[in-house]
C-alpha cells in the first residue's frame, strides 16, 4: 500500500491490517505518555483546501503522537485555477522535503491526481475529496463498529478468522447509513469498506438525496427510515450531516423544509426505541442537532459519536505508520518497531 486514497481499492487484508494496527495504536493512547518515536525526523504536510476542524486536528495529533514534524498548509481561498495551484503546491512541498501529504480538497479526484501525477513521490492520504471519498473516516467508523459489534455472529471455525484478536468481526452485521448520501464522501467510503469487511449496508434517504448510480454500489437503498429501523433491525445507524454548503443558496430543493426532513429522516428517541438493545448510533460530525439527529439521540447511551473522534486519531496513526514506517520496517510488526 503506497497511498490511502479510496476504500474501494482496499483489499480485505489491507483493511484488516489497518484496523488491527489501529487497535495497537489505540492501546498506546491510554498510556500516560502517548508519544511514540516511530516517525521522528519525518515531515508530514497537512494540505487542506477545504474547511475542517476534527479531521485536520486529528491528523495533526496523529502525526505528532508518532513524533513527526507537521506542517499545516491551509490553501482555502486560493484564486489560482485548481490544476495549476495543486501542481505548484506539490512541487513546493517536494522541494521542502515532505515525506507524506495529507490532502483535503473540494474537487473529487484531487488526491488521486496528487498521488499519480509524478509531481512528488511520497505517500498521499485522502482526507476527503469533494463528494467522493474519505477513507480514514470509514476506517474509524469500521474500527468503532468492530469494537462494539464484533464477535458472536459468525461461529468460530465456520470461516477463517479475519482478525488477530484485536477487534471484532463485522461479517453479517447490518448498518443503516441515513441522510444526505448525495453529498457524502463518508457514505461512499463506508459502503465499500463495510462491504469488503462482510457487513451489510442499507442506505436510507429521500430519493432526491440518493446519487445517480448508487444502485450499482454494493448495498441496498430504502426511502423509508421507520421501515428500515423496525423491520430490518440494523446493528448500527450511521447518521449523515445535511450538507447545506453543497446545496446552493436556495437549499437546492432537495427536501420541502427542514421540519419535513426531520419528520421523515431525523433520528430521535422514538425511532431509537425501534432498535435492538445492542444497536449503536454513529455520526461523523459536525452534527446539525435538531435536523438529522435530535440532541437526545446524539447524547443517548447508544451514541458512540465522541468515541469516533478518539478512534480517528488511532486510525490516522495506523495509516501514517503503515505508509511511512512500513517501508523501512517491512518485516517488523508495530510491536517490534517500538510501541
Ligand atoms: C465529514 C466530511 O468532511 O466529509 N466530516 C468529517 O470528516 N468529520 C462529514 C461532513 O462534513 O458532514
Condensed summary:
The protein has helices at 12-28, 54-65, 82-95, 110-116, 135-149, 185-196, 225-232, 258-265, 269-272, 295-298, 305-328, and strands at 43-48, 69-74, 100-105, 124-129, 174-178, 200-204, 220-222, 236-239, 280-282. The chain has 339 residues and is α/β, with parallel strands linked by helices. The longest helix is centred in the last third of the chain and has 24 residues, at 305-328.
Describe the fold and architecture.
- Helices cover 37% and strands 13% of the residues.
- It is an alpha/beta fold and 339 residues long.
- It has two domains: 142 residues, 3-Layer(aba) Sandwich (Rossmann fold), CATH 3.40.50.1370; 174 residues, Rossmann fold (3-Layer(aba) Sandwich), CATH 3.40.50.1370.
- Strands 7-6-5-8-9 form a five-stranded parallel sheet, with helices on both faces. A four-stranded parallel sheet has the order 2-1-3-4, with helices on both faces.
- Helix 2 packs across helix 11.
- The chain is globular and about 55 Å long.
- About 4% of the residues have low confidence.
- The structure holds N-carbamoyl-L-aspartate.
- N-carbamoyl-L-aspartate binds next to helix 2 and helix 6.
- The site of N-carbamoyl-L-aspartate (NCD) has 11 residues, from helix 2 and helix 6.
